[in-house]
Amino acid sequence: RQDSRLNATIKVMYQTPLDYAIDTTKNLSNGGMFIYSTRLPPLNSIIVFKLCPPGETQPIELMGRVTWRCPGQGIGVRFMGNDPEARGRLDRLVENILPATPVFQEAAAG
Which of 1, 43, 72, 97 is least buried, going by the fewest C-beta atoms within 10 A? Predict the structure, then answer.
């Protein structure tokens, strides 16, 4: 992981291969997020989701891949293939969270 994860509790709605869910994020970065959830989509499944920033009327529609699962806690999602407008809105959202303390930061392996 190259991006710092920042504490952020934001409503997220998403479609998985199995169902539709409404949950919240635990943390967020430009590259991905952790979603609190009792639903655990299959590892590597693609999720189409809507991130609902507080105070905004339109959700940010994004796509990501489930990169890890933690039973009883939730899923890690890596953002992928998003259009420039959605990506720009995500980047601005993360910039607005930046004064918060990072959860952790790891350099990419390899």
Answer: 72
